[in-house]
Specification:
Strand content: 25-35%
Mean pLDDT: 79
Largest sheet: 6 strands, antiparallel, barrel
CATH architecture: Beta Barrel
Number of domains: 1
Number of strands: 6
Distance between the termini: 32 Å
Order of helices and strands: HEEEEEEH
CATH topology: Thrombin, subunit H
Structural class: alpha+beta
Shape: elongated
Helix content: 10-25%
CATH superfamily: predicted glycosyltransferase like domains
Radius of gyration: 18 Å
């Protein structure tokens, strides 16, 4: 049964993800800040995963501003695709107000292919780093798959 659930989740995801832990600014379409203590935990060309103190209901439109490792700000419109609230038994299920009390996914809306280039560069940099690590292991005589 767990396998069927996993397969369904992978089918809904659009593309590969890369781990990215960065500060994130979320605002409603009228400019009000929302989801305090938001942090991006992974990103792909179709959207990103967020850890925050408060969740947002699915379908909520948001403006996203994310500081990438290249120090460039990625800005986009999106909508909340899914949301999950963490329950803490020590507080009878109430959130603690920490940055990991809620997790949700944001799907990019109306993002042009040109604006996704900085995210595509993250994937390219990761692939280059993996190739470099394989070359170093080979040169030092270590197993590539170690």
């Amino acid at each position: 049964m767990g396998r069927a659930i996993r397969q369904q989740r992978n089918d809904t995801r659009q593309g590969e993800r890369i781990s990215l832990h960065a500060k994130l600014s979320l605002r409603t379409l009228d400019g009000k800040p929302t989801a305090p203590l938001s942090r991006c935990t992974n990103i792909g060309l179709g959207g990103l995963r967020v850890s925050a103190a408060e969740g947002l209901p699915p379908g909520t439109p948001v403006r996203i501003e994310l500081l990438l490792p290249s120090r460039r700000i990625f800005a986009s419109l999106g909508r909340i695709a899914w949301s999950k609230q963490t329950l803490h038994l020590s507080l009878f299920g109430l959130p603690r107000g920490r940055d990991d009390d809620a997790h949700f996914g944001i799907a990019f809306d109306g993002t042009s292919p040109e604006s996704l280039i900085p995210i595509a560069r993250l994937f390219s940099a990761r692939d280059d780093e993996r190739a470099r690590a394989r070359r170093i292991r080979r040169l030092r005589g270590y197993s590539i798959h170690a």
